Amino acid sequence: MSPEPLTVLLAAPRGFCAGVERAVDIVELALQAYGAPVYVRHAIVHNTHVVAGLEAKGAVFVEDESEVPEGGLLVFSAHGVAPQVRRNAAEQGLRTIDATCPLVTKVHLEATDYAQRGLSIILIGHAGHQEVIGTTGHAPESIHLVSSPGEVGALRLPDPAKVAYISQTTLSVDEANAVIEAILRRYPLARGPRGDDICYATQNRQDATKVLAQRSDLVLVVGSANSSNSNRMVEVALDSGARAAYLVDDAAAIDEGWLDGVRTVGLTSGASAPERLVTDVIRRLQARPGGARVETLEVVDEQMHFALPAELRRLPVTTAAGK
User: What global pTM score does this model have?
Assistant: First the structure.
């Protein structure tokens, strides 16, 4: 008797968010318009396949602007940079294009505003993440980084009445809310942003992952190990009742042992993972004995687009990011 086919529940939304699509388009447009090499400060987005694809087209990824030759073209990644990085680039005579996600720019503006008003700023985020480094650089004397409710208790801020909080955009919504609750318990007068700092795409993908976890035996999240939002999705799946959840960079990373006894696989992808990687996973599952049937599980109808920088909108070239 042939084995019954797997059911693959395919989450919607998933994959590239508007900020990632914009950032990848910026690098591809710059390569078409100005030719290689185009230098990119840090990985444009946290996905090994995206980075490798752009390298093959002539992008050169560097960790510091000092690595770019004088007169070179440098793209700032979607994670954003500190003001000092921009000053360094200008002093080196570099041409620059800013691919910072507009939602990250929002947090930068909040940090600058709070600092100018003399507030101590609690930044909720993960030490060493590029977004956190860039945000901290906008108010280095005012920002205090915490990653958990327990760390809030260790803070010693000069004036409890003059406190504000902001957060990394790619955190788990529940994780960030737990820290915010701890902040407000200790600093009841603390001011927060007008709108949630957690990226709309991060929240949507986590919401969809929660539903997948409740309906699947196994949840697979396509994304790279250095992707904060992808890692958070695995945590959300486990916290929401999934018996097992794994982060896979691509179809080749799937362990057949994970599928033993599994009838339903929940499949989604982080905000920096291109759709072709999800398609490859589906093909691998369909190639197994018994095959697989795919059902789309639409949780949120996501419609968002960010405009390209003005200097690139005028160019008569096109891209196909994530396709």
Answer: 0.91
